[in-house]
Amino acid sequence: AAKAEGRNRFHYFTPEMEAAAQRRRRMLNELREAIKLQQFEVYYQPIIDLSTGKIVKAEALLRWNHPKGQVPPLDFIPLAEETGLIVDIGNWVFAEVVRQVSVWKGYFDTDLQVGINTSPAQYLDENFCEPDWFGNIMGNGLASGLNPANLCIEITESLLMEAGSSITDKLLQFRDHGIEVALDDFGTGYSSLSYLKQFDIDYLKIDQSFVSNLSPASQDLVLCEAIIVMAHKLGIRVIAEGVETEEQRQLLTAIECDYCQGYLFGRPMPAKEFSDQWLIPSHLIDQD
Ligand code: C2E
Ligand code: MG
Ligand code: MG
Ligand code: MG
């Protein structure tokens, strides 16, 4: 048995695996410090209303400005989720977006709605969505003129799959506060149409994997159109993600998609750049 164990141990800890485990431990330690060291930043990406061509929404996308270079979310969010750090990080994102949107409201002519991504692990935190949580995160913003309709939360299908009553209650809390809910990455998970019936969802975001190969005779076009027709019949509006070409925009317009997000319109960018490029200062707007 000892021999087998020895072999197993040898088998499980190759130098590569040891190095990977070490990288992970180092990243975890650095991630723990990142809020305190003010290394997080929220980028904003415009979302366009296809019927008017105007910006009506944006998505808040987290960036980690590590001293050695920016770390993309997909490289640290899974680790933050596994370790529960996403609770603090997610709360920081909420507070930061509320602060930023409140500031924008003071300076720009905007009723922009900003989408905030949420991970299932955040819903496991007992404080999340409790009255104190809303007070702490949103109190100042609401006092300085923030309208809850300026916020939207993005959830994933995996959240709805796991959904017990406490998760459903939390989603309802957002709705009760006047915050809309979008189902992100639609079509990639175990899409079950019953979620759409069971939960009150305001928006579906069609995943970019359906958008990237859109062409006039493609199956993806048929799928997108079917999703849009179904969503509209259920009173749900549709946002297409990852729109990169003019042809994609035209096809999505033809099948009556409501909103588009993607590099064709603008990349995610720091708040200052975003407002310079996309928001109109209030004093330039006719008051009458
Ligand atoms: P997501 O919520 O689906 O966000 C959309 C992703 O698509 C973003 O990647 C965005 O930069 C990218 N994107 C937008 N337009 C285009 C395009 O035209 N082409 C291509 N190829 N990509 C496009 P990003 O910023 O790297 O974020 C990746 C994921 O990380 C997000 O996917 C979201 O799941 C997660 N994430 C980001 N910020 C947060 C956060 O604050 N909290 C949580 N829990 N997750 C976050
Ligand atoms: Mg999202
Ligand atoms: Mg998405
Ligand atoms: Mg996605």
UniProtKB/TrEMBL annotation:
Its recorded name reads Bifunctional diguanylate cyclase/phosphodiesterase
User: Ranges for the EAL domain?
Assistant: 24-282
User: What is this organism's lineage?
Assistant: Bacteria, Pseudomonadati, Pseudomonadota, Gammaproteobacteria, Oceanospirillales
Q: Which domain of life is it from?
A: Bacteria
Annotated source species? Amphritea opalescens
